[in-house]
Amino acid sequence: QSPLAGVPQAPKDPMFGLSAAYRADTDPKKVDLGVGAYRDNNAKPWVMPVVKKADEILRQTPDLNHEYLPIAGLNEYLSASQQLVFGEDSPILKDHRVATMQTISGTGALHLGARFLHKFFPESEAKRVYVSSPPYVNHLPILHDARLETGFYPYYTPTTKSLDFENLLSTLETIPRNSIVLLHACAHNPTGVDPTQSQWRQIASVMRERHHLPFFDSAYQGFASGDLDADAWAIRHFASLDFPALLVAQSYAKNFGLYGERTGCLHVVTQEAELAGRIGSQMEKLQRVNISTPPAYGARIASTILNSPALFAEWQSDLKTMSGRIVEMRKALRSLLENGKGGEGKWKHLTEQTGMFCYTGLDPEQVRQLREQWHVYLTGDGRVSVSGLNWGNVRYVAEAFGGVTG
Ligand code: PLP
């Protein structure tokens, strides 16, 4: 008998299971509102024009080779990524108070951050990472894999389909001092609900007072609003308050469409350069045992764009194309539903929420009916990936939503 005979069957990942069910459906009217990747108006993956250009430039570069990158990653990529997150003029960069590692996209950044905290965050009652309720589907598994304890902070009120701000704030006031709090920088996944700037200020002020450690997950910079600075506002505000430590897991999957190239960074900000240097040295050690060195191609594409003013400007316009189409589809679905029977005034959350996802409020039974009777696929929590909508299917989707809610 095999020594591995006792290995139990693991459940299928729900997201990837949903995609498989969609692919297997032969109905021509089928609609995929589950996919966590941008789709164009023809429901096709979109390679951004600026990414195509950078790709061409790289392919024509003489002597480009497949050597290993340094353990921390491609130098010019790391510095450009710091500027993108914290802003070119940030004192953090001038004072060299941030340690940055290139990671396997946002997931790798979260994982490296979690492993780092598990190893170096002091043991105490507070050694627990608080995530939003509901959380991004992979937050708890990643944190638990790194053997960190977790807890929840309230985030969403189903009745109003908006932020549960009072309870969020009071929870941050009552959890033990020095707790770790995982925050979504913008375009919260799965709810699409973000705090306003004034709410962020209050969250930051309570967290500073209670000595909590902010750990930002930034997977949608520039993708949410189309404006890279606006989407980094919360991180930059926290950074300006000089927390003793602040982490940012940055992903380029969505905002460059580099999903499969696994391109990201982990930034650890401190109050002094010397400490940032020591932290960087320890993160290199963790990186070495995990992945040895990061993958080169996505970082070269990103770096080519981030370091060229002309390409950077084109990128900003491509981001507006993506975010603009998403806003357009939110508006179209809302108005079709509200003009339909029984839909008046019920769908304003579709346009109030932001980013790739929308929490529709549809319940698991309605989601099942959508799938079985209408061939419309979304996750059981009623989350819709808005970029799955286009001018060819939005009327049909509105009809389907009206059909299961009416
Ligand atoms: N964090 C959030 C909130 C996300 O929505 C995603 C992707 O959907 C990720 C992190 C990780 O994505 P990736 O590892 O592809 O960068």
TrEMBL record:
List the residue ranges forming a coiled coil, or say none: none
The cofactors named for this UniProt entry are: pyridoxal 5'-phosphate
Q: Does the keyword Transferase apply?
A: yes
Q: Which UniProt keywords apply?
A: Aminotransferase, Pyridoxal phosphate, Transferase
Q: How is this protein organized at the quaternary level?
A: Homodimer.
Q: Name one Pfam family in it.
A: Aminotran_1_2
What range(s) does the Aminotransferase class I/classII large domain occupy? 29-401
User: Which family is this sequence assigned to?
Assistant: Belongs to the class-I pyridoxal-phosphate-dependent aminotransferase family.
Task: State the name under which the record lists this protein.
Answer: Aminotransferase class I/classII large domain-containing protein
